[in-house]
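Title: Prediction job returns without error message
Component: structure pipeline
Severity: low
Priority: P3
Assignee: unassigned

Description:
Job completed but the reporter wants confirmation the result is attached to the right record. Sequence as submitted:
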Amino acid sequence: MSEPIVPPQSPGSDTAGAEPRHHHRVEDADAGSRVDHFLASRYPDLSRSLLQKSIRDSNVRLNGEKTKPGHRLRSGDQIDLALPEPPAATIPAEPLPLSILHEDDSLVVLDKAAGVIVHPGRGNPSGTLAAGLQYHFDRLSDAGGVHRPGIVHRLDRDTTGVLVVAKDNQTHHRLSRQFERREVSKEYWAIVRGSVAFDSDWIETHIRVHSAQREKMQVSGPGGDAREAATFYEVIERFAGYTLMRLRPKSGRTHQLRVHMQHLGHPIVADKVYGGGGTVKRSEFHLEPAHAPVIKRQCLHARRLEFSHPVSEERVAFEAELPPDFMELLSLLRAGETGAEQ
């Protein structure tokens, strides 16, 4: 989960030969963040040093003026930048399978499979959703740069479910604005470890990059680069040692739901990074073959996405069925064959 990329409202650029300018408005939750950290959180496939150089070269403007990497942002600040691109010019198209829930002239809604990275980054140059989109569609927005064709928002590699893709920049802009203004309704389902105490509640914390493991996030106090994160949860069903949850993130921080479930003391099943343990095997349910896996990745699924259609402005909603590994675990829990203790 992450913040969307917002395309420019006008094509003007302060830098000759630079990429088209991109625009962000700083919301209350980002007030106090450094300019370079704010941009790094939105463009994780660009190195911090590249973004800092872009700021020093005056390719980033704050309220129309030059700024510095360490300048602290205020709510309402306007940031414009000529987005620097990683060295590769394009993403090669790859004939990867896509599960399409909906397609029209302006957007595509997909059911993302587990194990698929949304766009290329360091160490993952191929096999991405972006490469599959390049193969299947002739027209995609380029608002996020050449490495993110059509990509409005992201799901983690092993998170499945609904994801919307823009075919043109106007659609991208209008969808991104809805994400930034928290007008998009997102619903995830997860199976977590343990019996959650309350039937429903809010989790409101601050989240920042982990102090020791940079690929992780952690709950922290306010200040510095910490950003506000809010999640509403409801219990759908209870089992011995497990709980099926409905999660509704209000914000869209990186790994937010996984971090919040760990913070609650009920990590998502098989989430190796955030305390959910490793692969769930059939032996846990006294079944043969004992070593066979039930689920090998975090049991988290983007179930439903609702937004205003960027052309008709009507509210539309799309749902993705639970994937087979999620359903198998759920069926075993409902059968009551687990030996786990509450």
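Comment from assignee: result matches the submitted record. The longest strand covers residues 227-239.
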